[in-house]
Every structure is written in C-alpha cells, then in structure tokens.
Amino acid sequence: MPRRDGESNEPMKSIPGMPYHWFSIVTLRGSPQETPTEIGKQLAASFSAFSAPEFESKTFQFRGDSSSTPPLSLNNYLLDRDCIMYLKKIYFGVSKEEIMQDDETLAEFFGSPKEGKRVLSGVSDAEWERKMWYD
C-alpha cells in the first residue's frame, strides 16, 4: 500500500524510472518482545531472499528503527482508507458506531478522536459492512 504524502491524504509519488522508496513499513508484532530492529532485519532478509524470474535480484537493507516514542498515529504513515482497512482487520466484527465511541482507538489510528470521527463519518454503513476494502 502507498505511503501517505505528508499532510495530504494522497499517496507519495515516485519519479518515473526510479524505484519507489519505502520510508516506512507498518507491521504488527508477533510478540511484545520483538523490537522494530529485529522485525526490520527479518523483513529485509525475507525481501532479499525472494526471487522470481520476472523480478531482478535486489538486496534490501534495514536502515534503522525510526519509530517514535510514543508512536505517531497510523494516519501519519498511511492513507485514511488503508487505516480503515487495518482498523477493520484488528477490530473484526466491531461496529463502526462502537469504534467511534472509543477515543483511544481513534487517536491511535487517526491522531485524535475528532479526526477519527470525521474520517469514519465519511464511510457509509454499506461500505463498512463490505468484507474487503481492496479496490
């Protein structure tokens, strides 16, 4: 999924002919003991080991943990629709109305309860009930 381009809710653009740079990757930890550095090194090794005839061989490097403490909200990195997709995956079966009452969750995903309610208010009930959010 694309990385958010600064304050806009638009995907980051890449320069034609140049590789798309991943400045961040959002993951869920397998256990509370895993550190961002361990996860980053494992992902880089997995991406580097992946090969298929249609892809050139690439070597990926983990450049370091750039997470902040406390972490920024998810919408600092991803588009609103992608934040909603993760929200639905993590809180599977929970209604939109219930989530809109959970200020802590709204702040973690959208930066503030007000912004979370604004974003979720733009999602119709029919859209919310759709199983997949991939276009």
Strand content: under 5%
Question: How does the overall form come out from the CA principal axes?
Answer: globular
Question: Residue-averaged pLDDT, rounded?
Answer: 78
Provide the gyration radius in Å.
17 Å
Ends: how far apart?
Answer: 11 Å
Q: How would you describe this structure to a colleague?
A:
With 135 residues, the chain is mainly alpha-helical. It is 39% helix and 0% strand. The chain contains 6 helices and no strands. The protein has helices at residues 36-49, 80-90, 96-100, 103-110, 113-121, 125-129. α4 packs across α5 (113-121). It starts with 35 loop residues before the first helix and ends in a 6-residue tail after the last helix.
List keywords for this structure.
mainly alpha; globular; 0% strand; 135 residues; single chain
